[in-house]
Amino acid sequence: MTVSDQVKALIHNQSFVNGEWVNALSGKTFSVINPANNELITEVPEQTQEDTSAAIAAAEAALPAWKELTAKSRSLILKRWAQLVNENLEALATILTLEQGKALVESRAEVASSANYIEWFANEAIRINGDTLPRSANGNFEYMQKLPIGVVAAITPWNFPNSMIARKVAPALAAGCTVVIKPAEDTPLSALALTHLAADAGVPAGVINVITASTGAEVGLELCKNPTVKKLSFTGSTAVGKILLEQCASTVKKLSLELGGNAPFIVFEDADLDAAVQGAIAIKFYNSGQTCICANRLLVQESIHDEFLEKYNAAINQMVQGHGLEEGVSHGPLINEKAITKVQSLVEATIKQGATVYRGGKVLPELGSNFFQFTILSDLAKDMDIFSSEIFGPVAAVYKFRDESEAVAMANDTPYGLASYLYTKDTGRIFRVSEALEYGMVGVNTPKFVSETVPFGGVKESGIGREGSVHGIDEFLEMHYVCISA
Ligand SMILES: NC(=O)c1ccc[n+]([C@@H]2O[C@H](COP(=O)([O-])OP(=O)(O)OC[C@H]3O[C@@H](n4cnc5c(N)ncnc54)[C@H](O)[C@@H]3O)[C@@H](O)[C@H]2O)c1
Ligand SMILES: O=C[C@H](O)CS(=O)(=O)O
């Protein structure tokens, strides 16, 4: 089968409930648009609370048989799923770029990452061990099992529409849970394509269900309020995360929240400057700046600030903006008009507050309505709105600092705490600053640290819980203690 045949086979205009491709009960649909050219890709079901309730019921009905499978059986099905994802990598990457816009090279990396998460949790499935405990009274036999929490709801964002599904569904299934997924309205096709391959891999009907809707509120409310759902795993903005946290209180659901970020990227004067420039290019402009771990504030020590800007500007000139499927394109559009408006307004407001536009600062209509220039803003101050805003666009906000204590204070001056980065060759400074940074994750002299082996997550208002690593599966398990008295 050619890649284009695979793409055609994997693009769905229906959602997936109880092992069947279905329309919305209302029959209504909404459009999925290619952000590079605003062309229609397909229509998908406009589903509601009623559709969601049916999907939750399907997940509940499938739960007993799925959790009763041996861990090895679940593991083998997940391994087959990972294999099919790899075999369809190019098609999945093409679908990802079509609906999200990112350059194909990034889409390929994201799909490969999904296969790695699925394979990782296939292996974790057979390592869900409990404890036998020292008897607390004569004649007792005491033990703790880790058991699947039950029906899981997964609500995912548009910026990594493939890997955010794998990072939630793989550990949930490995743990013996069943899932109802609500993907982002801009990018539902990747979730549907992954689910197609999961079914081909042998995941039984009702174990994975996908609900599509043009807004998240109604479906999300059902996922939060329905008592059958025992766990909600959310990746998205902090604002929506707070809504879900409140809505889940009524049923005391177990929650994982992977939320927004405001990553500092600290460059000390003793850093390898060329390495710092390349790192700042990679983690500022990845996905055209639309990732939760993007360098949101570039903090550069004043003695090297001007040299850094010159080198950084020269490196930006090596990047190519365009339609993600085109050969040679390294960076695609923003996801939609709302995103462009948000970035444009933030840049204009920052200029009004006194910023200098070192380069860029405008939209790129010649490429398409959702393209924004690679931009550097300098002469920034921490009392400007941009300092506390998640930019989510190809805009580098560069700030000066005098010394280590000011750098740490600036870095921590935010309610967010997801990713952070620092560049220095001073070993003492590496340990001092890494420990002082109030973030879930710290990259030292590298921005590339995310993989399936890493406990990915944040502190403060960047979230609750971790995804990936040996810890990720615990989010979908409950401890069950038994005391047997002879
Ligand atoms: N921490 C992480 O791992 C991580 C990863 C990716 C994105 N993000 C964050 O996500 C944000 C960008 O993604 P986004 O724009 O899709 O976020 P978003 O919060 O607007 O949407 C995320 C998901 O939530 C749904 N949603 C929206 N309102 C809802 C509601 N009231 N109830 C239930 N669901 C609702 C959306 O339909 C979508 O599926 C950024 O803040 C980014 O930092 C975080
Ligand atoms: O946007 C945030 C994603 O979680 C980034 S990554 O895929 O985990 O690197």
TrEMBL record:
Keywords: NADP, Oxidoreductase. GO terms for biological process: gamma-aminobutyric acid catabolic process. CDD domains: ALDH_F5_SSADH_GabD. Residues 21-481 form the Aldehyde dehydrogenase domain. SUPFAM superfamilies: ALDH-like (SSF53720). One of its GO terms (molecular function) is succinate-semialdehyde dehydrogenase (NAD+) activity. Pfam families: Aldedh (PF00171). InterPro entries: Ald_DH/histidinol_DH, Ald_DH_C, Ald_DH_CS_CYS, Ald_DH_CS_GLU, Ald_DH_N, Aldehyde_DH_dom, Aldehyde_DH_Superfamily. The active site is at E258. Belongs to the aldehyde dehydrogenase family. This is NAD-dependent succinate-semialdehyde dehydrogenase.
